[in-house]
């Protein structure tokens, strides 16, 4: 037995003054709220960009409000050029994938909740934590700045495929300083994510309160912990990839640019590089990245659902946790399935197809755990619970498309179509967003000390749920007919008859966007006018509900938190808090 | 039950679970950083391997004098790991003068390594090597790979020397203790270990034959 008395962690005192308290704060709760707010701002910008794209696709000659003002060259008279359409697409993907989906469910909720779940007073390295938010923020500002430079935003997609991204301004508008800023922005995002992941891992391992063994950790914290490992390894690969890309662009090397390349009638002076190398490096990060986005979603749903089904998840903490760990591990060996049609050897395609089909096993186990946990439950249909159900539905619907795309032969037909757009929006986009909404409605009382309006929440859920299916299921169907993605206008003969369907999607997408204003209104109204939240409004068991709403600076007011139970001690209306000395009622 | 006690801001004693690795957070954080940094180096080395395998005229330009210089650099860097070890030992037994001496040696060896490396670089620049030029007429990727891989390593060595200087100052002022020196040592040994991959892959495999 090891008995260690350490007085090393002399924690920081509560800060005084506005700047130290709310701006450059080292408090994990403030940083969590900062990340969440950044996520909301990113969501709004990304959504607005998607409206511009959808309007242009459905009405190619329509003038889009404000777009002409934003970029007189890219959208003369408000009608985007094909290049500017690609810029909109690139920035929609970049802002949504990095600054919303990667940042909000992990760094937003995770920063706020993980130390509290573990029973710690703060993250292991509070100043590093502050640094990671502000580095992310600078990255975000740089990404947005591309809209306002003469060059415009880059047009090589959020994947920045070389050689388009590597050859410089000769490749078109946005490929000069737009792409440089993009590279810098993402490199900064990598650094911030690495610091964040390091902090999450060390906090979970070293800062658990007495009795908080790994088997008693709340499942959201398990997901953030596993996810931090995936981030740590994946972003450590994207960072040097960005550096090599910058070397190609500014240093004159040719890692990613093949010899004899002619772009816009100019022969480039490079030789011997490989665009496939870029795709291998990018997707070695990029595939774990989609799991970096979805694992926190799994965790949030696993954390929120038992509160409202009032019983433990099927299989206890083990099945879902092992499934998440298996997904995290396998996510590193499937990247090639993004490259079936990129010119990679067909034998390699088979090599990547098999693990891709294998990774569906833990994914299916995780989702079935959620679905089977509903059986026999006396469900409380609150807004967070509805969003959890929405998550299950969307993830299954999107996941089924994955079986098609995992096979090289089928993927060859579908890869460049909107089937893929529908697929990844369901699985990593909207699933993660629905889980984030579940987390938001669930934790809002703890984060801001007020309750959100349930009626508005339910209206928000049902409208979003139906409209999401209208948009993205229809995109699946359009893809099956061969409707090509990344095109700014539907000019080919076989695509013209799809125009009415296309307009249906656009109308649904605009309505879906409008629906989100119900959420924004609810958020702002509840933040200032909502009824005061009690400490434990959902009758939940974990440590965040064992302190005031919002929690004091050191989270528990100096109380000794001692944990005796797992996080899922529910039996109908009865429940046992993790810190309670009562007997277990659910045997977890 | 194994526990550790932490003093919270409020002054209350709070009992925590002990670290499963019996390791305080700074040191654990450094291990996690090393895992991540290893991936970054692996990416550069993978890119180098991909370029090398994919080119028809790679060439092996390093004459015996360069290899000898590389072996000498390897010797210097490995010795610095030994002096770092002595520095950590000295702080553990509280011998301040000895710790200063060994930390000083470590920084000196690190600096000598960097100087030797830069001398090699400038010699190559003089011969016409660059990020995008190969005076022997072989693959231009050689310079790109060589300078980026060794450049990343050199950056780590130089940052390490600076970090050691900061740690040494803090240690002498009493702000830092053994654990800080030990954590810096972890980083230093990692940088040495990486060189044991970089040296064979960039020098020995490119020796003229």
Q: What order do the helices and strands come in, and which of them pair?
A:
The complex is a heterodimer of chains A (588) and B (209).
Chain A (H helix, E strand, L loop, with lengths): L3 E2 L12 H6 L4 H31 L8 H4 L11 H37 L7 H20 L31 H30 L12 H33 L10 E2 L2 E2 L7 H35 L6 H15 L15 H28 L9 H23 L2 H7 L3 H31 L5 H27 L18 H31 L40 E2 L2 E2 L13
Antiparallel strand pairs in A: 2-3, 4-5
Chain B lengths: L2 E5 L5 E5 L7 H30 L9 H29 L3 H32 L13 H33 L4 H26 L6
- The CATH architecture classification of chain B is Up-down Bundle
Mean pLDDT across all amino acids of chain A: 93
Uncertain runs of chain A are 1-10
What is the percentage of strand-forming residues of chain B? under 5%
Task: Name the structural class of chain A.
Answer: mainly alpha
Helix content of chain A: 55-70%
- Morphology call of chain A: globular
Please tell me the overall pLDDT of chain B: 91
Radius of gyration based on Cα positions of chain A: 24 Å
List the defining traits of the structure above.
heterodimer; A: 588 residues; mainly alpha; Cytochrome C Oxidase, Chain A; 5 strands; B: 209 residues; Four Helix Bundle (Hemerythrin (Met), subunit A); 5% strand
Task: Provide a brief overview of the structure.
The complex is a heterodimer of chains A (about 600) and B (about 210). Chain A has about 600 residues and is an all-alpha fold. Chain A has helices at about 20-25, 30-60, 65-70, 80-120, 125-145, 175-205, 220-250, 275-310, 315-330, 345-375, 385-405, 410-415, 420-450, 455-480, 500-530; strands at about 5, 260-265, 265, 570, 575.
Structure in words:
- Chain A has 588 residues and is mostly helical.
- Chain A is built from 15 helices and five strands.
- A two-stranded antiparallel ribbon of chain A has the order 2-3.
- Chain A starts with a strand and ends in a 13-residue tail after the last strand.
- Chain B is elongated and about 70 Å long.
- The N terminus of chain B is likely disordered.
- Chain B has one domain: Cytochrome c oxidase, subunit III, four-helix bundle (Four Helix Bundle (Hemerythrin (Met), subunit A), Up-down Bundle), CATH 1.20.120.80.
- Chains A and B meet through β1, α6, α7 and α8 of A and β1, β2, α1 and α4 of B.
- β1 of chain A pairs parallel with β1 of chain B, so a sheet runs across the interface.
């Amino acid at each position: 037995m090891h008995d260690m008395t350490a007085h090393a962690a002399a924690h920081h005192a509560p800060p005084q003054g506005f700047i130290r308290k709310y701006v450059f704060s080292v408090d994990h709760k403030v940083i969590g709220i900062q990340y969440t707010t950044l996520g909301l701002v990113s969501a709004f910008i990304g959504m607005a960009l998607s409206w511009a794209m959808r309007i242009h696709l459905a009405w190619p000659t329509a003038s889009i409000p404000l777009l002409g003002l934003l970029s007189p060259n890219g959208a003369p008279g408000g009608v985007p050029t094909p290049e500017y359409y690609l810029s909109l697409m690139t920035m929609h993907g970049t802002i949504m994938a990095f600054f919303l989906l990667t940042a909000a469910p992990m760094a937003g909720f995770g920063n706020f909740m993980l130390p509290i779940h573990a029973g710690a007073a703060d993250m292991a390295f509070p100043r590093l934590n502050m640094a990671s938010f502000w580095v992310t923020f600078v990255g975000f500002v740089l990404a947005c700045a591309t809209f306002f430079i003469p060059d415009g935003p880059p047009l090589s997609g959020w994947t920045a495929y070389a050689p388009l991204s590597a050859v410089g301004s000769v490749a078109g508008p946005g490929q000069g300083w737009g792409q440089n800023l993009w590279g810098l922005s993402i490199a900064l995002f990598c650094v911030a994510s690495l610091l964040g992941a390091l902090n999450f891992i060390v906090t979970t391992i070293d800062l658990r309160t007495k009795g908080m063994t790994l088997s008693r950790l709340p499942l959201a914290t398990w997901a953030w912990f596993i996810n931090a490992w995936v981030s740590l390894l994946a972003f450590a690969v994207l960072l040097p990839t960005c550096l090599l890309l910058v070397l190609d662009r500014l240093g004159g090397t040719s890692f990613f640019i093949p010899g004899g390349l002619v772009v816009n009638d100019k022969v480039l002076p490079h030789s011997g590089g490989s665009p496939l190398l870029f795709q291998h490096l990018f997707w070695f990060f990029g595939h774990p990245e989609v799991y970096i986005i979805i694992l926190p979603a799994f965790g949030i749903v696993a954390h929120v659902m038992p509160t409202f089904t009032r019983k433990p998840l099927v299989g206890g903490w083990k099945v879902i946790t092992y499934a998440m760990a298996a997904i995290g591990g396998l996510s590193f060996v499937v990247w090639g399935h993004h490259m079936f049609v990129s010119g990679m050897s067909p034998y390699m395609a088979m090599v990547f197809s098999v693990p891709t089909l294998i990774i569906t096993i833990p994914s299916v186990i995780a989702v079935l755990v959620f679905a089977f946990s509903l059986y026999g439950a006396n469900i409380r249909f609150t807004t967070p619970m509805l969003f959890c159900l929405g998550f299950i539905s969307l993830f299954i619907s999107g996941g089924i498309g994955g079986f098609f795309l995992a096979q090289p032969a089928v993927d060859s037909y579908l890869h460049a179509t909107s089937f893929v757009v529908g697929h990844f929006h369901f699985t990593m986009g909207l699933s993660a967003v629905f889980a984030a909404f579940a987390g938001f409605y669930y934790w809002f009382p703890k984060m801001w000390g007020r309750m959100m309006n349930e009626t508005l929440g339910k209206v928000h859920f049902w409208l979003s749920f139906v409209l999401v299916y209208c948009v993205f299921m229809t995109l699946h169907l359009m893809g099956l007919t061969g409707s090509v993605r990344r095109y700014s206008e539907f000019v080919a003969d076989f695509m013209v008859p799809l125009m009415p369907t296309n307009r249906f999607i656009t109308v649904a997408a605009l309505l879906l966007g409008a629906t989100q204003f119900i959420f924004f209104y609810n958020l702002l109204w509840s933040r200032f006018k909502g009824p005061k939240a009690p400490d434990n409004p959902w009758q939940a068991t974990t440590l965040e509900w064992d302190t005031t709403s919002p929690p004091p600076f050191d989270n528990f007011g100096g109380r000794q938190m001692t944990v005796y139970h797992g996080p899922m001690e529910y039996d109908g209306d009865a429940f046992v808090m993790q810190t309670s000395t009562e007997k277990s009622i659910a045997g977890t | 039950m194994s526990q550790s006690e932490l003093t919270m801001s409020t002054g209350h004693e709070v009992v925590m679970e002990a670290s499963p690795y019996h390791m305080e957070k700074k040191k654990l954080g450094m291990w996690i950083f090393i895992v991540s940094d290893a991936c970054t180096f692996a990416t550069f080395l993978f890119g180098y391997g991909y370029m090398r395998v994919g080119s028809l005229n790679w060439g092996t330009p390093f004459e015996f004098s360069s290899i000898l210089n590389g072996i000498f650099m390897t010797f210097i860097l490995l010795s610095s790991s030994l002096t770092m070890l002595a520095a950590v030992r000295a702080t553990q037994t509280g011998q301040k003068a000895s710790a200063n001496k060994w930390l000083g040696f470590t920084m000196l060896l690190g600096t000598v390594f960097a100087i030797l490396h830069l001398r090699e670089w400038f010699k190559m620049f003089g011969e016409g090597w660059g990020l995008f030029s190969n005076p022997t007429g072989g693959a231009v990727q050689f310079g790109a790979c060589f300078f980026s891989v060794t450049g990343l390593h050199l950056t780590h060595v130089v940052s390490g020397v600076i970090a050691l200087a900061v740690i040494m100052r803090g240690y002498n002022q009493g702000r830092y203790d053994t654990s800080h020196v030990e954590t810096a040592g972890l980083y230093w040994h990692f940088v040495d270990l990486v060189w044991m991959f970089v040296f064979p892959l960039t020098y020995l495999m490119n020796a003229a034959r």
